[in-house]
């Protein structure tokens, strides 16, 4: 398989090389980071209200004073779909003063 030469393409290539079947649905987690719990909670509330297909987990980060909001979507991790979802979450996070911190597949 050929993947685009960017971060998402590299992650997909590594997963493929590790033997992960990228043609089937996986639990794909998109990570958002916030400096304040209230910001993360506000995004979590927004996601729950507007995107019922997304599971969320809000928890403190290992870094002090940072909050993680993990947004999990069951999907086939096709490059274009991962990029589109990541951009979608990044745009939403920015509205709540957060930012996207990548993605991965739940093992």
Explained architecture:
It is a single chain. By secondary structure, the chain is α+β, with helices and mostly antiparallel strands. Helices cover 39% and strands 29% of the residues. A four-stranded antiparallel beta sheet has the order 2-3-1-4, covered by helices on one side. Strand 2 (55-60) and strand 3 (67-75) form a beta hairpin.
From the structure above, extract its key features.
alpha+beta; four-stranded antiparallel sheet; 29% strand; 39% helix
Summarize it.
This protein has helices at residues 7-17, 37-50, 79-95, and strands at 26-34, 55-60, 67-75, 99-105.
Secondary-structure element sequence?
HEHEEHE
Spans of 5+ residues with little confidence (pLDDT < 50)?
none
Q: Give the overall shape.
A: globular
Number of strands: 4
Structural class, from helix and strand content? alpha+beta
Whole-angstrom Rg? 14 Å
* Helicity, as a percent range: 25-40%
Strand content: 25-35%
- Distance between the terminal alpha carbons, to the nearest Å? 21 Å
What is the typical, i.e. mean, pLDDT? 95
Helical element count?
A: 3
Q: Largest sheet at a glance? A: 4 strands, antiparallel
**Which strand order spans the largest sheet, edge to edge or round the barrel?**
2-3-1-4
């Amino acid at each position: 398989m050929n993947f685009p030469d960017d971060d998402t393409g590299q992650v997909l290539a590594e997963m493929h090389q590790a033997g992960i079947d990228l043609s089937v649905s996986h639990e794909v987690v998109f990570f958002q980071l916030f400096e304040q719990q209230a910001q993360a909670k506000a995004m979590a509330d927004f996601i729950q209200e507007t995107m019922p297909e997304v599971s969320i987990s809000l928890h403190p980060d290992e870094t002090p004073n940072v909050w993680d909001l993990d947004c999990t979507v069951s999907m086939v991790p096709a490059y274009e779909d991962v990029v589109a979802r990541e951009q979608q979450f990044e745009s939403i996070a920015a509205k709540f003063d957060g930012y996207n911190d990548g993605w991965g597949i739940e093992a």
